[in-house]
Amino acid sequence: MSSQIIESVNSKLKNPLTIMKKELMSYYTTPIAYIVISVFLVVTGWFFFSTFFLFNQAELREFFKLLPFVFSFVIPAVTMRLFSEEKNTGSFEILMTLPLSLGDVVTGKLLAGIVFIISMLLPTIAYVISMIIVGSPDLGPVFGGYFGAILLGGAYASIGIFSSSLTRNQIISFIIGLVLCLILTLVDKFLFFLPSSALGFAQYLSADYHFKNFTRGIIDSRDIIYFLSVMAIGIIGTVQILEERR
Amino acid sequence: MISVSDLSKNYGDVQAVNNISFSIRKGEITGLLGPNGAGKSTTLRMLTCYLKPTSGKVCVGDYLSDENPNEVRSIIGYLPESAPIYGDMIVYDYLNYVAKIRGVRDKKRIKEMASLCGLTEMMHKNVSDLSKGFKQRVGLAHAMIADPEILILDEPTSGLDPNQIIEIRKLIREIGKEKTVILSTHILSEVEATCDRVIIIDKGKIVADNSTSELKASQGNESRISVKVANTDFDTLKEELRNISGVIDVIKTEDDNLTGATIITAADNEVRPDIFRRISDKGWILYEMLKESRSLENVFRELTRGESNE
Questions:
Q1: Cβ-Cβ contacts under 8 Å, B70 against chain A
Q2: Which of the four CATH numbers 2.60.40.2250, 3.40.50.300, 3.90.1150.10, 2.40.30.170 does domain B2-218 have?
Q3: B222-293 topology per CATH
Q4: Mutate which of A98, A100, A244 to test chain B, going by most B C-beta atoms within 10 A?
Q5: What residues of A are in contact with residue B88 (Cβ under 8 Å)?
Q6: What is the secondary structure of B32-66 as a DSSP string?
Q7: Which residues of B touch A25 (CB under 8 A)?
Q8: Over 70: is that where the pLDDT of B295 sits?
Q9: Residue from A93, A95, A104, A243 whose CB has the most chain B CBs within 10 Å, to mutate
């Protein structure tokens, strides 16, 4: 019985994983990946170390504080090509005539995005190591922060994939993704414009608000559900758009 | 194997395919023929479930394309126009990727396809570095890798050199012995060389649907003979030739030094000996006499021209 379940899960995941591998192969054979990773590390490294010694505290707070904002720029740049390029070169036609469901395709591309984001975050472990050398950091918020960062990255990647499905132009795809991610990052920063009744709602929509909980070391199911829902909405929206335009 | 009924596709106001119906039996090689923009590619894209029809039904094997698109896709091998294959992958990786998705477990199959399509030397090159002809071959290998029941090829020989074209046509004939093949083209000799059956499309409508040989035979009840003659002018020539029984009309054709004419006669009337005798009796010199065979080309031109005059 259990082997049957494993078998069926395997066959469900087989196609998304094949797509994921293919996308990762494309990521790491083009220079874009290395450029994006370098920019990300330079920017976050600058913000992290420029204030690191001021507070005399061993923590990654500054790094995580800016992460939703930095991700809003970096992740749409990572995902902008996922559908736009396929549409532009015409390979989309081949993809759509292989025996794959749209859900498989979108999930596979999202997984590739998430793996890429993890590989982008890996070098920042160096910050953690340098912290451990100079002080004794509280590791709870660090682990929480990384866990949250992966969820945040996944959510933004799904938004980036959605905007990539809207157009065959990568620049337009990047800008739409950037705007959507910035809205999710900043929606609770403009609360003073909103009536007080909408406050809680705006706060619930904010990716930054949910991510902050992780960086305090709190892993709350509500926050996890928030990010997973954003990913699900991104996938469903993308499938809808692609289906609509057939 | 494939049946299409009342299929239409609109792009906004433009009707690319207009209410077409046909069915294709197993083991047939069918050519979809038409001028540019006739709706060939759109039709094939609907057969392969890439586009959704505006109306009408496509049934492939036992499946309806709008209900079981993935089952339909898995029995069709498809080569889109100009083979848009991922440029940043090497040929081997690409074929391996397609094989995996199509559930081909045997890695030997990739090698087989490579040697069948003449790609063995190219396996470790980036697709974007390949010439158009080789890219087309990768597309063919991609379409055939899972040994599908139905092969749909959109302009399979475009961009290939004459030797490759002959090879690919041979390959298609070979495959067509067991499989169902549909190919689209605007090259008429291709249909004559490879297809058992031809469907001619113009402006989104089927204007002819017949076996290749029948189509060639059925059309026309007049034949044309062109001549080139020296030592005379057209009017005298016309006067002379009009007197032959069976000649319907004589039309002037341009030629630099000689007098050219096209003689239209009833199809079953052999007038060539008469033409020769009359010309030589007059002391004119006959340089050329050619009976135009009713090739598909003429049939095609007539059918598509007729449509546009309406």
A1: 99-101
A2: 3.40.50.300
A3: Alpha-Beta Plaits (3.30.70)
A4: A98
A5: 26, 29-30
A6: EE-STTSSHHHHHHHHTTSS--SEEEEEETTEETT
A7: 89, 93
A8: no
A9: A93
Which residue among A18, A21, A101 sits closest to B70, beta carbon to beta carbon? A101
Residue B140: name the closest of B107, B187, B174, B108 by CA. Answer: B174
Mean pLDDT on A18-46 = 89
A-contacting residues in B 107-166 (Cβ below 8 Å): 142
Could you tell me how many residues make up chain B? 310
Separation between Cα atoms, residue B33 and residue B18, nearest integer Å: 16
Question: What pLDDT digit, counting tens, does each position of B13-42 carry?
Answer: 888 888 889 888 888 899 988 888 888 889
Per-residue pLDDT reduced to its tens digit, A118-173: 999 999 998 888 888 888 888 888 899 999 999 999 999 999 999 999 999 999 99
pLDDT of A68 above 50: yes
Q: What integer pLDDT is reported at residue A226 of this predicted model?
A: 94
**Please, where are the H alpha helices in A187-244?**
199-205, 207-215, 221-244
Structure tokens at A210: 């949910």
Give the span between the Cα atoms of B180 and B78, in whole angstroms.
Answer: 12
CB proximity list for B32: less than 8 A, separation 6 or greater:
B40, B43, B44, B182, B183, B184, B185, B198, B199, B201
A26: which chain B residues are within 8 Å (Cβ-Cβ)? 86, 88-89
Q: B12 to chain A: nearest residue by CA?
A: A245
* Domain locations along chain B: 2-218, 222-293
pLDDT at A195 over 80: no
pLDDT band, very low/low/confident/very high, at A182 (cuts 50, 70, 90) = very high
